[in-house]
Each structure stands twice: as structure tokens, then as C-alpha cells.
Amino acid sequence: MVGSATELRRPLDDNRRALDEAAALGAPELVMVMGGIPDRDLIGARARAEERLAQLVPYALERGVRIALEPLHPMFAADRAAISTLGQALAMAEPHPVEAVGVVVDTFHVWWDPDLQSLIRTAGERGRISSYQVCDWLVPMEADPLLSRGMMGDGVIDFGTIGRWVHDAGYRGDVEVEIFNAAVWATDGDQVIETMKQRYRDLVLPAPVG
After folding, report:
1. Of 20, 70, 86, 145, whose CB count within 10 A is highest?
2. Tens digits of per-residue pLDDT, 188-198?
3. CA-to-CA distance for 40 and 98, rounded, in angstroms?
4. Model pTM?
5. What is the C-alpha radius of gyration for the chain, rounded to an integer number of angstroms?
6. Listing from the earlier edge strand, what are the strands of the sheet with 29-32?
7. What is the DSSP letter of 129?
8. 42 exposure class (CB count in 10 Å sphere: 0-12, 13-18, 19+)
């Protein structure tokens, strides 16, 4: 069923308000997740995401805020993000100016992709990498996958390799540690910070060459 004009316009208005807030805060970029599948129409959901991005780009340029598209792991395609791979995010960004649209490399969401190295290289060559985010993929997962992110080193992701690919692609921006995990949240904050610093030094920082 096709929604009313008001229902279709609401997400666009919400995104414009988010861009306004980012501009007011002086944030140079706004990370966006492009939404799930409300009606079993995955192809249509992706097409609508492309259309809405095209509508948002002029607005973002006027406010000096770059839209950073974040692909989520395919398990979130139904309810959170119909864009599942870095390749899809790059294809969506490509028609638009580099200063308007970038992509996010989040290890939790993209570590499994067999084309990840070449996609990161392409993203770097095109100047599209907006953000690099790190946290680990736990095995087994928590009952709620959204809260199954782990501290680096507690799961299966090879941060040294992926981090080297991102570094070699020319990215020199911030590296965000993004952990959604109830056990981590319940741990003493100072302990979490100290563990994060140690794991970051040992696992995330690119190894010196030569």
C-alpha cells in the first residue's frame, strides 16, 4: 500500500531537521542510515532511499553539512537499513558531489564483505570516506543483535588488516569506538576507558611500515 503524501514526506522533513541541527552545532558531517523495508519491497526501498538522498543533497550543500551514508550488516536490512554493503553506499553516493555525500566504514557492519579491501580503496580514491568506526563482532551473538557489539579483541574482526586498508586509502580522520553492549555499559566507566585505550593501541592503530 502506498502511504499518504504526508507519510512519505515525514522522513524527508526529519532528515532536513537533522541537517539543520548538525549545521547549528557546527558538525561537518551527519551520519545517515537509510531505513528498512516497510512493505516487503526491498528494491523499492532502495530506490526510495536514492530519491530521498537526491532531494537532501542540495539542502545539505546549502548548510555545509556532508551526508555520510552508513551501510548496515544485511541482518538489519528488514528493519533498519536497506543499504547493506559499502559498494551499495558508494554507488548511491557517486552521482553527488564529494563534498555532499560520503560513506562510513563501520567494522561491525562490513568486516565480512569479500570485496571490502577494493571497496575501501575505491572509497579513498574518490574521497568518500567520512568516518571509520570500530567495535568487534561477538560469537555467539547477544539475543538482541543491535547490542552485540564487543570491545575490540573480544570477537572475530581483524582490525589490523581493515585499519591498514583504511589508512592506505588515505583516511586520516577520527576513529570512533562505537560499542552498543549492555555488559559494557554496566561496567565501571574508568575501566572501560582503560580497556579501550589498551585495545586501541594494540589492535586498531596501524602497524609501522618497514
Report:
1. 86
2. 999 999 999 99
3. 32
4. 0.92
5. 18
6. 29-32, 66-69, 101-106, 129-134, 175-177
7. E
8. middle
Nearest 5 degrees, angle CA 191-CA 149-CA 73? 160
Angstrom distance (rounded) from CA 110 to CA 121: 14
C-alpha–C-alpha distance, residues 131 and 33, integer Å: 13
State how far the Cα of 5 lies from the Cα of 173, in Å rounded to an integer. Answer: 40
Would you call 188 helix, strand, or coil by DSSP? coil
Which residue is associated with the grid cell 542510515? 33
Which residue from 72, 82, 74 is spatially nearest to 35, judged by alpha carbons? 82
- Residues 68 and 102 sit within 8 Å (Cβ to Cβ): yes
DSSP 36-95: --SSS-HHHHHHHHHHHHHHHHHHHHHHT-EEEE----GGGTTTTBS--SHHHHHHHHTT
Helices (H), the chain: 5-25, 42-63, 86-93, 107-110, 116-125, 159-168, 182-186, 189-199
Which amino acid, residue 205? L
CA atoms within 13 A on the CB side of 34: 33
- pLDDT tens digit string along 133-176? 999 999 999 999 989 999 999 999 999 999 999 999 999 999 99
CA-closest candidate to residue 34, choices 100, 88, 87: 88
